[in-house]
Design brief:
Layout lengths: L18 E3 L6 E3 L4 E2 L1 E5 L3 H4 L2 H13 L4 E5 L6 E2 L5 E2 L12 H14 L3 E5 L3 H5 L5 H15 L5 E9 L5 H14 L5 E5 L3 E2 L1 H4 L8 E4 L26 H7 L7 E3 L21 H13 L4 E4 L2 H4 L16 H4 L3 H13 L8 E2 L15 E4 L3 E6 L5 E4 L7 E8 L5 E8 L2 E4 L11 E7 L15
Parallel strand pairs: 4-5, 4-14, 5-8, 8-9, 9-10, 12-13
Antiparallel strand pairs: 1-2, 2-3, 6-7, 11-12, 15-16, 16-17, 17-22, 18-21, 19-20, 19-22
Helix pairs in contact: 2-3, 5-6, 9-12
Amino acid sequence: MVMAALSASADKPWDNGRLRVSDNQRFLQFENGKPFFWQGETAWLMPERLNRDEVSFYLQTCREAEYNMVQVQVLNDVPSFNIYGQQGWPDGRKVAGDYGYWEHLDYIIDEAERNGIYVGMVCIWGGLVKAGLLDEAQAKVYGTFLANRYKDRPNIVWIIGGDIQGDVKREVWETLATTIKQIDGNHLMTFHPRGRYTSAHWWSKAPWLDFHTFQSGHRRYGQRKGDKDYPIPDNTEEDNWMYVDSTWAYRPIKPVLDDEPIYEGIPQGLHDADEPLWQACDVRRYAYWSVFAGSCGHTYGHSAIMQFYKEGYPPAYHNKITWVEALRAPGFHQMKYLSRLMLAFPYFERVPDQSIILDNGTQYDRLIATRGEDYLLVYDYTSRDMHLDLRKISGERKDVWWMDAETGNLTYLGQYENKTYVFRPHKTKTAIEDGVLIAVDATKEYLTRTQTSIIP
């Protein structure tokens, strides 16, 4: 099955029914059984910084790039101010004017719906709760307001937390989540944790949490920066694949995804302007590593877009380009190749399987593999030799392709017997040339031998 690009007038995803967790508890799907691959875009400050025309332009661009989810901070301060000078309070009050803060958020959700896009609603950023700007009583009022206002919208996913540990003001998060869930049983809910944590660390048994997220963070290997409570081993900072395993170590198993990996165009480690910027190849690596490890989707981010930087606002994290310029960033347009790839094959049977790889490396040289019953995929970041066992899937013979992760281009490599092989990618440039080795039972027709792109 291949996912078709949506137009504003096409059938919308929710025409397939509400989102729910798959029967095997590892993926998301619609009520009619069709898979939902979360292809998210990070739009934290859209409610505060974009006007109506800019909202429409941004969401149309996201649709054209095949994103089906944008994540926003509903409140970035107490009160929050939008571009029209209107205030947003946790009790939903209106200060002045007919078109207030919440009407502008309504407009954002309406425009996202028109474009076939879900809105991940981070109700209030974690630092505000930590600072005492929302207590339990206020969380109940706020949760009641939000749930009643948006419970009937088809394109909402609730995100509790916001870059924070779940044991910081835990009672406030619990109150906010349960209040919304008691009123709105139609929409999925998760929790966005602080960097280098999974939501399962605090909420593995929370009945209101439908799926987990983790934030793999923005630091490179060895970039510890003196954290005292680092929850991962040294020199694993970029190994975001490991969070899927650590999340599934908790019970019950729930779907999981990387909700905040490195952002394209942001300094490595965030805070030092002299550090190199994360590039498109880096965001691709994080996406494929996470999804091949078992994630139910992935969220992309760009430094300029997540803050919607433009003239008149102070830039964060040493950003130097506008959000409109960043919409042309290569990584922004390359995420669709991953979602197209995942939806080209039987979806719910897919499992991570490192036993396919007979000679693996570490860090950047680490290959990662996933497979179904009759297909396997191996992501190779450094174009290193791949010693692979094709016997892990069905079929006496296997058709094999190479997909360029930068372009989505497919190259048919031929038909191979049911045994082990060493595949040697041939680099055509000195820069990173990452891609996916695809092997399929030759009796199946998920791809054609003459197909030259993962987007037919």
